Fold this sequence. Notes:
The complex is a heterodimer.
Chain A: H1 4-7, H2 11-32, H3 38-55, E1 70-73, H4 79-88, H5 94-99, H6 131-144, E2 151-156, H7 163-174, E3 180-186, E4 189-190, E5 193-194, H8 195-198, H9 204-210, E6 214-219, H10 223-231, E7 245-250, H11 273-284
Chain B: E1 13-15, H1 16-29, E2 35-38, H2 47-54, E3 59-61, H3 66-78, E4 83-88, H4 91-95, H5 97-106, E5 111-116, H6 133-138, E6 144-146, H7 151-161, E7 168-171, E8 176-178, E9 194-197, E10 202-206, H8 210-221, E11 228-232, E12 235-237, H9 241-251, E13 253-261, H10 266-277, E14 282-288, H11 298-304, H12 309-320
Helix pairs in contact in B: 1-2, 1-7, 3-5, 8-12, 9-10
Amino acid sequence: MMNSTVNEWTIQELEDKAIDIRKDLCTFIYRIGIAGHLGGELSMIDMAVALYYKYMNYDPKNPEMPERDRLILSKGHCAEALFTIYQDMGMYTMDYMVDHFETLETAKFSMHPNRKYVDAIEASTGSLGHGMPIATGLALGARMSNETWRTFCIIGDGELQEGTNWEAFMTAGHYQLGNLVAIIDKNDLQMSGPTNQTNSIDPLDEKMRAFGWEVIEVNGNDMGEVCGALESLPPSDPHIRRKPICIISNTTKGKGVSFMENVVAWHAGVLNKEDLEKAIESIENTRKVR
Amino acid sequence: MAVEVSLNFDQILSSAREVYGTELRKMADEGMEFAFVCSDNVAPSSEVGKLMKAYPDRCINVGIAEANQVGLSAGLALSGKVVFSQVFGPFLPLRAADQIHADIAYNDVPVRLIGTHAGVTSGGGPTHNAIADLSFYRAVPNLTVVCPADANQCAKVVRQSMNYPGPMIIRIARGAEPDVYADNDYEFEFGKSITIKEGSDLTLIGTGSSVYWSLKAAQKLEQYGIYARVIDMHTIKPFDEEAVLKAATETGCVITVEDQSINGGLGGAVAEIIAESNIPTKFKRIGLPDEFAVLGEPNDVYKYYGMDPDGIAKTVREFFNR
């Protein structure tokens, strides 16, 4: 479990941490020199930071601790966002990640996460629509074993066009998996354009409620609202059957980098030195003056 | 290894689904920890249905959703369980191919996917036939693929799989099939085939139901002075290459028999080994041809395609001009 001082993170401290992680992420993408899925990574940073640094029962020194909360990244192409958090938490150095990024036999890190190479990764993902069935199985497993850990699953909004999500939503609702939290990173854009012009997933809140879920909707790039949602989660008790919780996290794709925000082309891309400098300056400008 | 085959294999029929259900129940009663998942494909009155009733907390029915079932089974395994997941065979590799590939095999989790209704045993026609599954499974890393020759062997596989690492596919027929083995007193090892009949003229290699057909064909062939070795190739992956090389060297003729497309399954595996071995060997594949199978009861379909014991024997005799 994270120690008590870490769990006393304030909203302001988490906001500053999210800014640091966004800058590190851009540096990481620049250093590996290949396309990262920056748009969707930047959109989910605030939620991921709040989870790892404050709300998940998680010890970076003991990533296989049996009672840890589990996080499944269904939008596996955004793995670099998690890797960046892991290096900040002290699990790896950035140099190590760069030196082991898609380096064939010595590789540990790549575009999509592999649980066998990175201890903190709970499930190898990449193919979209796979996280929710896996997370549902994990939550059922926790119930079967009378364990109180919680399962979180971060899903992209475009990804919801994959039918397996809805099969799993239906199952989790049916089994009333109160120990399961689905976080939909709703940045409203997918690779080829706006989600609502591609194959609309709205009204998402009504759909989720119809599938037996409790819905909390927040601005997922507002740390206060993110913390409010995670703070409101009831204790995870395997014996209590109640609706699973869906956090609709309304976000901005490319958040924090002005020239990437809401730009479809920044779904994925490489950063040159000039891009990086501009990106870091832009992210730093979002830091609140206190 | 001395293996006694059933002397009355025409008469003794057992259902792998029922026998493995009984075995799983025994294992649960003995205190073995595992989870079970199905997708609206277990009758409450069946042995597996009884297991689900006796152990409701560890048995999950996801309804008609095979892709979800396989992904969910991976999640259960990641939570620390050995998972038995019974899937309607034709839909396992077709509907849930991506989940088998990514969630089960790539994540390398101890899920035993039990695909029922192998080959054309469903009798439901091409939408309900499992004809390409072995071809697919063979190309997916990390999978162990087992086709038990009879119901009791299936029970052995299920029990032994508890202590076997990684993911496994267990492919079984729809209903009652003849017993191949007279008893359970033989050693079963994953990846190690069993020679159930010695012979010097040729080798018939079967897997799953076709082991019985091959044995029966071998018996018929003796009337014509043709002595066939019969191999139970119960594990399709990892494949017992050594047994094939030995058969090719010692008998000079190898014929494979499978309830699957002849493209890429057992026959494909054996062909690859022989082709790369430089051992001069006569070779033929018996199985479903590259077409959607004719509509009919399984035994009629087998007869139509020459996969039944008479058909196999006929093919062999033509090979030997006898």
